[in-house]
TrEMBL record:
Residues in UBC core domain copies: 121-266
Transmembrane portions of the chain: none
Name of the featured protein: E2 ubiquitin-conjugating enzyme
Pfam families, per database record: UQ_con
One MF annotation (Gene Ontology) recorded for this entry: ubiquitin conjugating enzyme activity
InterPro entries, per database record: Ub_conjugating_enzyme, UBC, UBQ-conjugating_enzyme/RWD
Enzyme class label: transferase
Sequence ranges of Low complexity compositional bias: 72-81
Keywords tagged on the record: ATP-binding, Nucleotide-binding, Transferase, Ubl conjugation pathway
Protein's gene: LOC6900761
Sequence segments annotated as region (Disordered): 39-97
EC number, as in UniProt: 2.3.2.23
Lineage: Eukaryota, Metazoa, Ecdysozoa, Arthropoda, Hexapoda
Keyword Transferase listed: yes
Length: 268
């Protein structure tokens, strides 16, 4: 009897991930249309879902935590839910000022420092100008402090010779802002003056307004006003009636100016 032959069965190893991946690729090549469409759609859904979650997270980060809606218990009483999710994040309206101060902690300090620097500069400038004008008085102009306050001055301008204001002593008041010389001083006549560009003490002169420059000094201001007494400007009047009289009847205008000077501008 012939010996029985036993068939040898070889175990086939399980497919590795690389083999499965290669098989999948071959399947894709065989039916590319359906598989590719399905794969692309799934990727698109995953991308859309990820973008939606990202936008939701960003929106939640920019909004304060909302309160839970009221819950009705068995007795019909509305109460707030207690299952509120705890969070350490502060509302945006509370964190924004903090972030602003941290980003620029010297903002308020810088503003006060600039004002303090401007005040010191103005004080130094006023002391220099006062010392100069008191030690070497300008022709026809004198100044002095009011109640020893460096920001309040009193000035006297003598009427120019050969004008209707000759012989008059015209008193003025000057008040300097803390930002002087970056800002012009406030100036007004204390003496009544009949003039085209002066009314109720107010003066219409461009160097005190639009033409002001930090290079101008008190001495230049007073000299400009004294020059204005000699040469009125009826085209930019403060006293409309006086300006009209100056244009139409110069003799009558000069008469009125002399009368006011004799009545209101005599030295004490």
């Amino acid at each position: 009897m012939a010996p029985r032959r036993t068939a040898r069965v070889l175990a086939v190893p399980a497919a590795t991930p690389l083999i499965r991946r290669a098989a999948f690729r071959r399947a894709v090549e065989v039916i590319p249309g359906r598989v590719r469409i399905t794969t692309t759609a799934s990727q698109r859904r995953r991308t859309t879902t990820t973008a939606s979650r990202r936008r939701a997270i960003q929106s939640a980060a920019n909004q304060p935590p909302a309160e839970d809606p009221p819950v009705t218990n068995r007795r019909g009483i509305n109460s707030r839910g207690t299952n509120r999710r705890r969070t350490n994040r502060l509302p945006v309206q509370d964190t924004a000022p903090i972030v602003t101060l941290l980003q620029n902690p010297d903002r308020q300090r810088g503003t006060s420092s600039q004002a303090e620097f401007g005040t010191k500069l103005g004080l130094r400038r006023l002391r220099i100008e006062l010392a100069r004008m008191t030690s070497n008085p300008t022709d026809g102009c004198t100044v002095e402090l009011v109640d020893d306050c460096i920001y309040d001055w009193k000035a006297v301008i003598l009427g120019p010779l050969g004008t209707p204001y000759e012989g008059g002593h015209f008193k003025l008041r000057l008040h300097f802002p803390q930002l002087y010389p970056a800002r012009p001083p406030f100036l007004m006549f204390l003496t009544e003056v009949y003039h085209c560009n002066i009314r109720n003490g107010a003066i219409c002169v461009d160097i005190l307004y639009s033409a002001w420059s930090p290079a101008l000094t008190v001495e230049k201001i007073l000299l400009s006003i004294r020059s204005l007494l000699s040469d009125p400007n009826p085209e930019s009047p403060m006293n409309g009636a006086a300006a009209e009289l100056y244009k139409t009847d110069r003799e009558e205008y000069n008469y009125m100016a002399r009368q006011w000077t004799r009545r209101f501008a005599q030295p004490e």
